[in-house]
Amino acid sequence: MSIKKEENGSMRLRWPIEDIVAFAKRYAITHGLLCLIPDNLDQATIVPFSLYPSPYSYSHFKFIWSIQTAYNRLYNRISLDDEILEKALSPVIPLDDFVERLWKLHRNCKRRQSIQLDIYRNDYMLDTKVDKMRQIEFNTISSAFAGLTGIVADLHKAILHYGIENCHVRELKLDEKYEKSSTIDLILPNEALKKSAEAMIKAFELYNNENACILFIIVPNERNVCDQNALIDEIQKLKPNIHFHLKTFEQLTNELLYDEKTFNIYLKSSYDEIAIVYYRAGYIPDHYINEKCWLIREYIEQSRAIKCPTIRSQLAGCKIVQAYLTNENIIEKYINNKNLSKNIRSTFASMFAFDNNQTREKYINLLRQNPNGYVLKPNREGGGNNKYDDEILKLIENKENHLNSYIAMEKILPPKCTTCLIKPNGKHLLHVECINEIGIYGTMVTNVDTNEEYINDVIGYLVRTKTTDTNEGGVATGYSVLDCLDVSQNNNELSKIFSQEL
Amino acid sequence: MSIKKEENGSMRLRWPIEDIVAFAKRYAITHGLLCLIPDNLDQATIVPFSLYPSPYSYSHFKFIWSIQTAYNRLYNRISLDDEILEKALSPVIPLDDFVERLWKLHRNCKRRQSIQLDIYRNDYMLDTKVDKMRQIEFNTISSAFAGLTGIVADLHKAILHYGIENCHVRELKLDEKYEKSSTIDLILPNEALKKSAEAMIKAFELYNNENACILFIIVPNERNVCDQNALIDEIQKLKPNIHFHLKTFEQLTNELLYDEKTFNIYLKSSYDEIAIVYYRAGYIPDHYINEKCWLIREYIEQSRAIKCPTIRSQLAGCKIVQAYLTNENIIEKYINNKNLSKNIRSTFASMFAFDNNQTREKYINLLRQNPNGYVLKPNREGGGNNKYDDEILKLIENKENHLNSYIAMEKILPPKCTTCLIKPNGKHLLHVECINEIGIYGTMVTNVDTNEEYINDVIGYLVRTKTTDTNEGGVATGYSVLDCLDVSQNNNELSKIFSQEL
């Protein structure tokens, strides 16, 4: 018997596809790419992910990266501008108890902390109609997945390294000159986790009590614990002496102490003073299960603690504010640089609300004529409740007065790619047609009284990929999977190599 | 309201115990202290662990550490001594098909690789009857948990750091002078994972084909994947260009190529030449589901690949060999240093087999008179089938001829400690009486023709803790939990602090 190994330079799978899938799952489980199983907090399952990075346009990615610090500043300034916030929110306040309550809370609280900490995530899709990146939404509260997105990149690197013969992976830095290469795949590096931790630590230092702690407010039976714990670990790695606590709003009703003289807040069990309140809960009404929970939010808001985010910053993330910003001369008020404001404006999809009697009929007609050209989005976080196509027509015919609860957004037509989606319980989707949504993370630590920017940074990215046959998004809801990007010149190669296997 | 924090130097819990348990579980899930759930390989659950390190005697630990390299050499030499192996195994060969088959396979295979790689784990308990460490067993195949034991130490450090006020943890190095301290806890560091990887890499380099790969032989539906993947990751970190494959015996029946001219073995899919075969399967008959699987084992054994372990090394780990070594002047043949051989001998519990007609009746009488003083252990890996107390008497009365399948070992009476055991699905055991079993990992890379020792090292340890009301062991079987050690002077403090909470 004579055994010969083919020796040519072209890429090909080294393992059969089922071994690659098995390896990928073992990697995911070993490296904490996990979420808990509902109803059993001692068991975890893999967070859905793609088997290899999706091809993407380097220039478009670089573009949204380049405008993020201006976007950070824009949203920071909007959150501080009560006049604009009120104007933008006013049509929604009478319709939406939750927004109304947040708004009133904000108006009743006196600011006692000039340091503001924000961790943003700005979500985009590439619109092939105009070959431009279009903003989907701007998240100002609980910007998730910074702790997991880096694991997916590492997973992809391991798969390409082990699973594919003659595959060389290069990590491209955004500030490096892009050298075109036909043989090397480029995956962008991701510092979302590390720099989120650094922003928190900077804010902690500005609070100026090294014995104080960081409070994570979480939902009961939180499933996305690996994502959150990664942030805790990263803080611990950089600054081991910062203590932290994880509490639900309901737990805090028994455990939070509010000192009306100093405006400090403490935790009863340890008497730890709270320097930073980091919200991974509080963005939907269900998180406040009773009035006491609302009282906790109020105590925190009017305390000296640094809030991530403040209520005003949370409100700035409402979709109605996003729609309001598309009006002329709004963003130009905050962004002095014409080029930057033009670039930011270029990411605005056409959006409209139905609160203005002068324009309402015009917009309804636009929807009637072209219902497939728009998406109706509720003015809420969470996803999963958008209206499309016939649903839009039905809403107009039967419940026209409900339109005010929605924002209409021009439908984005992102480019399609073919990939393999790995979901738990053996529900793989091999070689399916998909689209990508890109989130850019940004951090800000500012003194809102002096306008000093201690940190204004673009720190990393999130890629979520879903099949083209689903309208809905969301990794937690099972529609999307986590992914990363291949921006090399021949970035359709990987898809071809994996397809050969079938 | 005035809020004051008590400021004294004594240790106390910073979090309520339920928060500490919740934190510990989140940490375990995030850091891969996990095993798969039976029947769902996409879901994982926490590997049982203790909430804080168990108190232990530093001098006893240091003693077993100090003799491990001599132990490594002893077992390495025994594995190479066919005469001794045959003498020791001869009573079992007629009784045990599995041992017989391994023995015959070994005798029929010609050695074509002079490099031998061994990863051992030597398990002990402290016997309070004599205040000495006593060997429980010496593992030569599939020495598990090197990948997880370090995570437990990190978990304990995190719990002590975050969860306990005024708690300072110091990591003691075994070669450092031990400075007694009443305020600092000492936890021994663990390099079991890193140095296992280093031994594999050294063997790989000695095989001398950088394009070859490492083959992990695993069981179907392997649950302990995080432990195994940790080793792969560690190898990858140290030597990224080594490729590896994971296969079951059954998969190999289709995929292994054996070249009868060169005695090389390959994998069909990639034509990767196999430099090292690392067995995480093959230690019980059930792993060989058909004759083809046995043929695979034979091909590998007679190939040029470096086996971890060889069949001869696997056979040296049989309990009957362990019993045989307690006979006079056996170990002295391999260990020239009188002090070392005396020290090794001091770890031998009284053991006997029933194969010798001259002594059989005497030993049966010993058991009859004092059944509580002995344990009967089957001559097999795996655990869970020992006989105790009345079971021993029943066996003697009803099935005396079965005795030959067992080794009798004097019962060890380890010291008791109080700790908190965290098991999945909410089955915590808080403040229960427990005993500890300590495993010391050793690695060897040798040239068995020249006796050159490239590596002979003691690399780390495993601590398994179980309640005193269970006779059986095994983490995978749910009896034991992973643990680590506190060897500080006042090492009962932690137990007191955690008890105060109740």
Automatic annotation (TrEMBL), chains A, B:
Binds 1 Mg(2+) ion per subunit. Pathway: Sulfur metabolism; glutathione biosynthesis; glutathione from L-cysteine and L-glutamate: step 2/2. This is Glutathione synthetase. Pfam families: GSH_synth_ATP, GSH_synthase. Its cofactor is Mg(2+). InterPro entries: Glutathione_synthase, Glutathione_synthase_a-hlx, Glutathione_synthase_C_euk, Glutathione_synthase_N_euk, GSH-S_sub-bd_sf, GSH_synth_subst-bd, PreATP-grasp_dom_sf. ATP binds at residues 319, 377-386, 388, 409-412, 437, 466, 472. It catalyses: gamma-L-glutamyl-L-cysteine + glycine + ATP = glutathione + ADP + phosphate + H(+). It comes from the Eukaryota. The keyword Ligase applies. Belongs to the eukaryotic GSH synthase family. GO terms for cellular component: cytosol. Keywords: ATP-binding, Glutathione biosynthesis, Ligase, Magnesium, Metal-binding, Nucleotide-binding. Mg(2+) binds at E381. GO terms for molecular function: ATP binding; glutathione binding; glutathione synthase activity; magnesium ion binding.
